[in-house]
Write a structure and sequence with these properties.
With about 550 residues, the chain is mainly beta. About 10% of the residues lie in helices and about 35% in strands. Strand 16 and strand 17 (about 350-360) form a beta hairpin.
Amino acid sequence: MRTPTRRAVLGAGIAAAGSGLLAACSDSGGSSDNPGDAKGTDRSGPPKGYVSPDGEEVAAAEAARGSGPVRKVKLTATAARLDLGGRTVATWAYGDQLPGREIRVTAGDTLAVTVANHLPRSTSMHWHGLALRNDMDGVPDLTQRPIKAGATFDYRFAVEHPGTYWFHPHSGVQQDRGLYAPLIVEDPKEPLKYDKEWVVVLDDWVDGVDGSTPDAVLAELRKGMGGMDHGDEGMDHGGGMDHSGHSMSGMSGMTYEKAPAGSPSPAGSPSPAPSGPSRMLMGATSDLLGGDAGDVAYPLHLVNGRSPDDPQTFRAEPGDRVRIRFINAGGDTAYRVCLGGHRMTVTHTDGYPVEHAETDALLLGMGERYDVLVTAGDGVFPLTALAEGKKASGLALLRTGGGAAPKKSVRPKELDGKLLTAGQLKADASVRLRSGRTGEGDRPDRTITMRLTGSMAKYDWAVNGRRYDPDQRYPVRAGERVRLSFVNATTMWHPMHLHGHTFALPGGGPRKDTAIVLPGKRLNVDFDARNPGLWMLHCHNVYHAESGMMTVLGYRK
């Protein structure tokens, strides 16, 4: 149970978030609801009729999850110097390692994490992919107050579903530093049989290389295309309300903390002075991604925090059956991954089981996860993460015997073999959305169209033509089958992530919380509204999100 002191501190801010941060849009109560076109927001007082992040509905949903053994963890977000495999950089991290120390629990446990913020900026902690209680979701100024510099915050929630997850800040572009780590939820009735298990975290890296920072990258992107500077219109939703009761600033007219001398500026503050070489990427294309592959030319691509110059080596015996949990923690890069000399059997995506499917390679957008099984061969093999469309790659090694390691430039033939994407997979029967009054193929209770808009020319990424705005939310009601219809009206791909829920891809497709929407395409996904609160929906390209491609789903009371 949360301490009375913490509840007293948190309660007032959550009440503000639930009733005052976002103004209500009209609720038609029909099968279609597109408040992106709604007018007439009432700014004279707090909106009425929405579930607060710490409301009784949220408490009831949490109680229904049960309360198992408590797993206590302490994490410190701090400035650090990290060795990335022959190159040492100054960055921010959870302790002194990259990725941060893995958290591993069992489904049914209660996770209690104390986060101490030793950074010069406010921060937060989002538990990516978990269906957890809303006031623990870690979105500053929406579900909690930002964790101010020098402060701590206690996260406590039941962990219901097994699977591969991860955690990272939801504050500015902090995720594109070293602030991320795996969260593995074990299944107490695990049906898979394997001898070894590896967690493989993929990341594109820029922070601290030749003076670059993610904040300077964002500033360059905002200025560099079409000469437009949106530097004073940032989307930072994590710097306006402190942890000791000061008032929350809205997304309009935000106030900003004064950074200590020499510290990087956060997204949302006036644009930092340019630092390091240009990181704007031009001409990167991929047929898999429908054209433009990304915005940022990263100098490094890492596998478990190591560059190809000094890769991590996994060891096994020939014939071992290995479970690999892939996590794409990148900011702007999709990865095509393979294990040279091996075929992979896909068993899960985004934590949920799928009908097993064999493949040579996989495509992971930012925020996506895949679990695979492989049977280890005899020798030394490259585990390659090709930065899709960017002519670069990350590398790790599997060694089961003697022999020379492959060169860092190795390109296994499996990268050009059979490749699976999420749309080719089918959900395991145990996790398909249940048929009912709106069984599979039937009309959902509510359809919300999410038109993805914007361009590199103006860097004006948005949902339904509106950059993230606290005066708007898209209403849903508990118990509804909701369809999100993503319509990508841009020339870039977007990995769209929904907090607090998983949705089903069409045609019996897998359960996902993050899905790639290709340019010029529509993707319809369905979910059951069974986790009340205010939930973010956004592109998991951190630079697109911070420029405006975020919005909120709000449960009606």
